[in-house]
Amino acid sequence: MSAVAAKPTAGSAVDMTAMIIGLIILLLVIAATYFVFGSGLAFMALIGIIIGGVLIGFGVHFVPVGGAPAAMGQAPGIATGVAMLAAGAGLAGLFGGAWAAQTTDNLYVIVITGAVGGGLMMAITCMFVTFIYVFGMGIPCASGKVLKDPITGDTQPEFKSQGTEGHGLPFVSYVGGVIGGLFGGAGGTLIYLMLLDLYKEELPGMMNALPGQVLPIAVTLAGMFAIGMFLVNAVLAAYNITGTIEGPHDPKFKRFPRAIVASAVASAVCGIVAIMIVAL
Amino acid sequence: MESIVFGIGITALAGALATVAGAAENTESDIGSQGDPNSQVQLAPQMGYIHRIFNKAVAGEPPAYGLWIALGAGIAWAFMAMQINPILAIVLGSGLAVFVQGVYATTAYLGRTASLAKFGQPVYVDILKSMTTVTMAHAFVAIFTTVTLCHLINAALGHPFPLPLLGIVWGIALGAAGSATGNPFYGKERQYQNQKFGAGVPIAASGNIVRYAEAGERNSLDNGWFSAKLGGPASGVCFGLIVFLELWRTVLFEQVGAGWGAIIIGIIIILVFTVIDRYIEVWARKNYGPYQKPTEEASS
Q1: Collapsing DSSP states into helix, strand and coil, what is residue B192?
Q2: Which of A69, A262, A266, B93 could form a disulfide with B72 if both were Cys (CB 3.0 to 4.6 A apart)?
Q3: How far is A163 from chain B (nearest CA, A)?
């Protein structure tokens, strides 16, 4: 088939062959980890990393991102890149989660603290986006993808400026942003926590040092890997979205199953590298 | 008790530093024309509009600031490990990071503008000379304040992350908050000042950015002056609130209910901002009303 005759791809269709190959790679990595390291801490760390990565990849789809058109009031959403905004929120969550991990051992408290940190960052940022649109530019919010806001029921088309796809953040996009921040913060914190537990356990034996001495190294290593894996998953989801998305009501949101498989595979491959540096 | 008072004092100081950082970051990115609105600066010559706006989209603001602040924090951390006074170490680290930013700004302006040569866009050396230093100065303020707040979080509040890691976390968050809040104000309100107020820019008008000022041609210093009136301060308050409230809920409420206290306070804060957002949205719908097509000007 020539390039001209080829149908445009990157639609919402799911490529089953690619999904199956992805799932096979995922199962292979999980099985390899189980056979090499057993069902101990390393295996649990890998599972946690995969869940964290999926949470991040899924969460990014909620974040309303308008990119360059949003900066001119030509499209709804926040005027920045998908991966960047999600990273900003998720890392703010990771910051909170890592802090909480210092004082408590309760997994739920730590992960939820991270989630709330990400949600808080997105709530404040989204509120200021609305503030700038309304008070700085005199533009009310209007979605270009739906006739009515699914949450508030507000009608949208009559507020849309001529020649644009909409502008600002309708309430459903605001809620989507906060949910995206919650997922991102939780996922990043979970990855950090899993790696931190593993490193705290393995590093003293490996480096012949006391647990207190290796703690700063464990924290730094886990933090670096968590940030790296966060960016991997956020960028993967951004490729799946291709450009802009308004939030959970956008038709592009339905593409998330692809991102979940992709995030799981990418997290498993990155995760096994992060585990092997101490567990082998 | 004393430790809580100390913690709150540090939290307030970090929030104030973050406010200054956000304002400086947004003004820097608007003077340098970084971030999403730069797409129009790049597009304008291709549509036949030659301009004198700086053009430095090194990267999106979050990764760019992630780099510069992690660099400043990393160098400062290394100096502190050499027993140099923290203030001096932070100044030196920020100064060196700013030189990297200056190099990026110069190469980005030259490279991006030279790529527009076939559309007749000249490379103005006077623009390069007069504006690069101004973006560097603003970048220094943003980097210095953010590295300082990271140092406070690490040294005074006891966050486990080392300084460079905090630098990358808060650098990306700074860029994300600054670009989200400040970009529309620069992109729509300043670059398209010739369009109707209170409406989005029609896609058909893309590239037709305002190129003339009160006297002579508009340059990016004029844009910095404009966005420093609302886009910059709003970005500052946004980032300041993010840092302040995140630290405040942790410092005061982390010990309450075995960690659940900070979570509940965080959820309450999210709900408060949700109510404010909804109020602003409804207020705009009521007061501005639906979109009305511009009526034809009465032609005499």
Answers
A1: coil
A2: B93
A3: 4
Q: Kindly identify which residue of chain A lies nearest to residue B66, measuring between CA atoms.
A: A88
Contacts of A103 in chain B (CB under 8 A): 254-255, 259
In 3D, which of B146, B137, B150, B173 has the Cα closest to residue B19?
A: B146
Q: Alpha helices, DSSP H only, in chain B? A: 2-31, 38-43, 61-81, 86-114, 125-151, 163-184, 220-227, 231-253, 260-288
pLDDT, average across residues A132-139: 92
CA A209 vs CA A143, A193, A204, A247: distances in Å: 58, 21, 5, 49
pLDDT at residue A1 above 50?
A: no
Of A79, A100, A138, which is closest to B180 when you measure between CB atoms?
A79
Q: Which of residues 201-220 of A touch B (CB under 8 A)?
A: 216, 219-220
Chain B residue numbers with beta carbons less than 8 Å from the beta carbon of A84 are: 60-63, 172, 175-176, 179
Distance of CA B228 to the CA centre of its chain: 11
Tokens of A203: 């590093």
Other C-beta atoms lying within 10 Å of the C-beta of residue A69: 25
Strand partners of residue B217: B212
Asked if A116 lies within 8 A of B35 by C-beta distance, the reply is no
Q: For a pLDDT cut of 70, what percent of chain B falls above it? A: 98
**What is each CA distance from B94 to A133, A212, B71, B167, in whole angstroms?**
33, 31, 8, 11
Question: Between chains, do B242 and A121 touch, taking CB under 8 Å as contact?
Answer: yes
Cα–Cα dist A130/A168, whole Å = 6
Interface test with A, best of B146, B246, B264 (most A CBs within 10 A): B246
**Would you say how long chain A is, in residues?**
280
Q: Do B179 and A79 touch (CB under 8 A)?
A: yes
Q: What is the domain partition of chain A in residue ranges? A: 44-279
Q: Do A87 and B176 touch (CB under 8 A)?
A: yes
Model confidence at A184: pLDDT above 70: yes
Question: Does the pLDDT at position A3 exceed 50?
Answer: no
Minimum Cα–Cα distance from B258: chain A residue: A104
**CB atoms B165 and A227 under 8 Å:** yes
Residue A163 CA, distance from chain mean position: 32
A133 to chain B, any CB pair closer than 8 A? The answer is: yes
CA-nearest residue to A84 within chain B is B62
What is the Cα–Cα distance from A94 to A227, expressed in whole angstroms? Answer: 8
3-state SS class at B35:
coil
Tokens standing for B295?
Answer: 């009526």
Q: What percent of chain B has pLDDT over 90?
A: 69
Are B116 and B42 in contact by the 8 Å Cβ rule? The answer is yes
When pLDDT is cut at 50, 70 and 90, the band that residue A4 belongs to is very low
Q: Report which of A77, A54, A186, A68 is spatially closest to residue A126, judged by C-alpha positions.
A: A77
- In the block, which residue shows the tokens 């001209």? A4
Chain A residue numbers with beta carbons less than 8 Å from the beta carbon of B276 are 127
Q: Which residue has the higher pLDDT, B1 or B200?
A: B200
